[in-house]
Amino acid sequence: MRATAPAHPQLHPKYRPDIDGLRAIAVGSVVIFHAFPEWFAGGFIGVDIFFVISGFLISLIIFNNLEHGRFSIVDFYVRRVKRIFPALMTVMVLTMAAGWFVLFADEYKQLGKHLFGGSTFISNFLFWRESGYFDNSAETKPLLHLWSLAIEEQFYLFWPLLLAFVWKRRWGFLRIMAVVALVSFGVNLYLIGHDQTAAFYSPLARFWELMVGGALGYINLHRRDLNQRYKDLQAWLGLGMLVVGFALMDGSRAFPGWWALLPSIGAFLLLSAGPEAWFNRTVLASRAMVWIGLISYPLYLWHWPLLAFSTIIEGQTAPLAWRLGAVAAAVLLSWLTFRFIERPLRGSANMRVVLSLLAINIAVGLGGMAIYLNNGFDARGINKKLDYISDTDIFEGSRNSDGSCTRLNQLQGVNEEVCLSNSATPQTLFVGDSHVMALHSAIFAGQERMPAIMVAGHACRVYPNLPYTPTNLLRWANNCTAIANEAIAVAGKLPSVNTVVISGAYPRGNLEQASEYLVDGRALSAREAFLSGYGALIESFLKAGKRVVFMTDVPYLKLDPHSCVNRFEDGVSRECAFTQAEHRAIRKDYDAAVTQLQRLHPGATFFNPESLFCPDGMCRAKLGDEYLYNDTQHVSLAASRYLLDTMRKRGLLPPAQQN
């Protein structure tokens, strides 16, 4: 009897143990970077290695199936579900369960949003939108690492459909890959100069890395003459590029940008060298490297939630022993996940497995949305330890424009400005950065009856006379000079304004260091900029006939209020405030600069809230049962009321209006 060819041949690339070895380098570098960033600052480029590997393997599979007339989009996505969902659903479900017992309401609410993002593969867009001056520390987001998985999944949605379209029209695969790669790389370079966060999270700025791998897939199928020679040299060059990338990369680099070429081309060359190269067959294909590579996907998923929960529980970066324990636990859980969940389900031919995985994914997404819409279920017992929960965080609204300045005062504003108004005839104008937004929050909430308007900018030194060259690496702090001048213009346009309150974050550290401001080609020191910029702002308002109140910045905390509470021991809390002596030592240069500013501008009134926050030699984190801070430096709604009431009683603000 003649053998019958299978109806659906498995047109997948032959297994290469050296690829698992390369996966081991990728995941190992990421895990070490996350657990011990002080040891390995460049380890984050392991994600870029993963992108190239994924682009290579997926493109090779699609090319092969298309060219043999066997490509099925349904079969492709079924395989993706069986490959990705088993480990992902395991980690997400257990993270949701752990969050119920460990996280406070606002933290759990945010996790709910991230669970939804993880289940719909839009995590990169959520984290992109969240990133900013007020964003939670990355170390306290248990699902932050899913941003890279989301980009890969978006690629899996886009790429097979495009290749199938190209194949039907007999266009060249290599040509279309070159176009996609060049456009994506161009977007990457453009965004690096305008919004580095977008460059990091946007799929349009990352697809070129997957195209690098895709190009190698095409070369392996049709142009093997291009990479057949010098296999050992390719491997050593690739390894060298990875080593240079690991050595040179840190948080100060504008990444991805041009720097991402190092891990991308390095991974390309190691893949291109193939299993024949000495390094690949001896090192990458070694038993230990292959074993790590086989569990690399669940290890990537497990390591970050364990490290994040360690940080959350400890209230700050976890001790070395905790981090070592988290890595060891991640390795164990990854092996168990691979052995008993991932491998059995991935090899199953039963369609019910796929449907069940999809159902679990939908349930996780809906569960995440329920957590978010219910404000993190603040009735849970753990929230009784912390009075500061998400539904009382008025500050979240008071740091964004709401159209009130246009509606009530016919003001158009300038780019990046935050403007809030509650009256057509405001008496008090608040000017500054996010610290003045926090001070203003009780007015925004309607808890202080005061006709007022606020003009501010995130992370802005409101110096009207000192233009600077913005970095454009963030979506704010690029237009601060214009915001300062807009505040002056608003005071002139609104004759009802009789009092201007100025407040802002204090410049940290040595104020003799150079600032970003240049005058006649010379960089001003931070002290010179502070005196010149705030001096010009104060005098502009005084010249307009306004009373000026300059509020010195509040003391800062050692730890975020969430970290002050021990989550598992009743009656035990951490000291998160500084002593008054520590506080004064930290900002000695700033206080001296404020004293000098006051001496130079006697027409203004200066108000220092230190005595309100630091009675009896200890700066407070709480007043009674209420926290005075939203985080380590922005005052809470309770503190906003406290400060504004005190300022009014001292005659620094207009009298309160009666209801």
Describe the structure.
The protein is of the alpha/beta class. The protein has 26 helices and 10 strands. α1 crosses α13 and α3 (73-102) packs antiparallel against α4 (105-120). The protein is elongated, with a radius of gyration of 28 Å. The model is unreliable at 1-10 (pLDDT under 50).
Question: How do the strands and helices of this protein lay out in sequence?
Answer:
Layout (H helix, E strand, L loop, with lengths): L16 H19 L10 H22 L5 H30 L2 H16 L2 H8 L15 H23 L4 H20 L3 H6 L5 H16 L8 H18 L12 H13 L4 H7 L2 H8 L1 H19 L5 H27 L4 H23 L21 H4 L5 H6 L7 E5 L6 E5 L1 H11 L7 E6 L22 H14 L5 E5 L10 E6 L2 E4 H18 L3 E5 L9 H4 L15 H7 L1 H13 L4 E3 L2 H4 L8 E2 L2 E2 L9 H13 L10
Parallel strand pairs: 2-3, 2-4, 4-7, 7-8
Antiparallel strand pairs: 1-3, 5-6, 9-10
Helix pairs in contact: 1-2, 1-12, 1-13, 1-14, 2-6, 2-9, 2-11, 3-4, 3-14, 3-15, 3-16, 4-5, 4-16, 5-6, 7-9, 9-11, 10-11, 14-15, 19-26, 21-24
Features:
659 residues, alpha/beta, 6-stranded mixed β-sheet, two-stranded antiparallel sheet, 7% strand, disordered N terminus
How would you summarize this macromolecular structure in one to three sentences?
This protein has helices at 17-35, 46-67, 73-102, 105-120, 123-130, 146-168, 173-192, 196-201, 207-222, 231-248, 261-273, 278-284, 287-294, 296-314, 320-346, 351-373, 395-398, 404-409, 434-444, 480-493, 526-543, 561-564, 580-586, 588-600, 610-613, 637-649, and strands spanning 417-421, 428-432, 452-457, 499-503, 514-519, 522-525, 547-551, 605-607, 622-623, 626-627.
